[in-house]
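Quick one: co-fold with pyridoxal-5'-phosphate.
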Amino acid sequence: MTKRDEPIPFFRPSFSDEEERAVIEVLRSGWLTTGKVTLEFEREFGAFVGSPHALAVNSATSGLMLAMEAFGIGPGTKILTTPYTFASTAMSARHLGAEVVYADIEKDTYSIDPDLVEEALRRDPSIKAVVPVHIAGNLCDMDRIARAARARGAAVIEDAAHAFPSKTDSGYAGTLGDAGVFSFYATKTITTGEGGMVCVRDSDAAARISLMRSHGINRTVWDRYTSSTASWKYDVVEEGWKCNLPDILSAVGRVQLAKAERFYRERKELARRFNEGFSGVPGLALPPDGPGNAWHLYLLGLVPEELDCDRDTFASELQGAGLGISMHFIPHFELTYFRERYGLAAADFPNAHRRYLTTVSLPFWPGMTETAADRVIDTVREAAGRHRARA
Ligand SMILES: Cc1ncc(COP(=O)(O)O)c(C=O)c1O
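Sure, here it is.
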């Protein structure tokens, strides 16, 4: 149990001896890289989200790049996304020689504004993919985005790095567009340390991703070593990459997947507790919450008009009191590479800019004790009280 004076980390992975046993089994099996455990992980993950094809990769960044490539993104094309995301959403397009067009987020959420998606697609026919990002697991307006993209012949590739298991009446996030990419990075809702999964409906796209994630070799290693035909024979038919997920990590992923619903329930309960603790407190705003939110992160909002300090001061006081905090996200107009390449300015993205200046990610993970959760609440409320703006 977390003691009063112990730091509360931003994230703590929930592992038990089940993950340990699964890894040891793989180590003792003699087969470490992508093989039958990864095939099982892909099958189980695909069944969970209802995707006919699920392809395990070494990161969501690789997955985004592979999915974009499979849908024709490359030199001479552009992708459309929001500046309010992690670097890799845009960087994966840059790896392919494509360019990035940015649209602001909505005023009341962290999601790309569908009006601006429609406008950008109308204005620029070289946009060949829209990449909505479900920040913190709260879903973008996928119906409108998919409709707009379809009307202009653009693909929809969901950055679902935060969105497992976000779910709507139409299905799970990551299965609502042409492709969806999940992350199993160390702080994600289920984790393999590093890793990711690409979900696609189209069989040709799945075959392309499978080929390109493994050097453009036309046979998988597992097939070469288990098939009765010559194990050493293969051909390289494309200029591919090396993006496979090894069995050691897939073994962890399978155990985590089996726990995903429980983790989700625990995060939801923690979000309820935080919301109750912060509701009505001057200076604080609750995170946006829509149907099917996976609650990957708790993005506390600050109301600058009601506080006498800025976000950085507020955040550093939380840190000083032992809370592990983070910021999701530093928008791309604040990052040198993207700002300079695309001439981005904060003034062109007023909603993303305001969110950037007023958001703090609080410690948030399944398994956090009620005592620790209450200490997070008390610490934040005390800071808000200390910094309440005088009228
Ligand atoms: C929104 C978003 N997209 C993509 C990624 C990339 O994930 P990975 O670290 O698995 O490459 C992240 C990682 O934090 C993310 O937050």
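If it helps, The radius of gyration is 22 Å.
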